[in-house]
């Protein structure tokens, strides 16, 4: 019984563009007292003033917030491990 390595997902222009956009938007994140704060809608709005959304706007916004939630969950888990 060997370990099966899954095939990588098919390339998606939209997914790639959303990930690149998230990386750009996340540069505006604030860290008051060293704590990562969630991104707010104004950061996304600022991005969209310079660039077009790679998909429907509501999908783009939901994806950016979902990626941010994953980032913040990872930060919380790392903080819990440090305090344990």
- The level of helicity is 55-70%
Tally of strands: 0
**Class based on secondary structure composition and strand pairing:** mainly alpha
**Radius of gyration, CA atoms, in whole angstroms:** 16 Å
Q: How much of the polypeptide forms β-strand, as a percent range?
A: under 5%
Number of domains: 1
Mean pLDDT: 93
Report the order of strands and helices: HHH
Verbal overview:
The N and C termini lie far apart (36 Å). Helix content is 60%, strand content 0%. It has one domain (13-26, 34-83). With 84 residues, it is mainly α. The chain is flat and about 45 Å long. Helix 1 packs across helix 3 (57-83). The chain has helices at 13-25, 41-50, 57-83. It has three helices and no strands.
């Amino acid at each position: 019984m060997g370990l099966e390595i899954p095939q990588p997902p098919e390339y998606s222009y939209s997914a790639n563009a959303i990930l690149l956009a998230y990386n750009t938007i996340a540069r505006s994140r604030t860290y008051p007292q060293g704590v990562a704060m969630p991104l707010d809608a104004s950061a996304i709005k600022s991005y969209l003033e310079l660039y077009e959304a790679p998909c429907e706007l509501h999908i783009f916004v939901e994806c950016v917030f979902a990626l941010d939630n994953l980032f913040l969950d990872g930060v919380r888990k790392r903080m819990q491990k440090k305090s344990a």
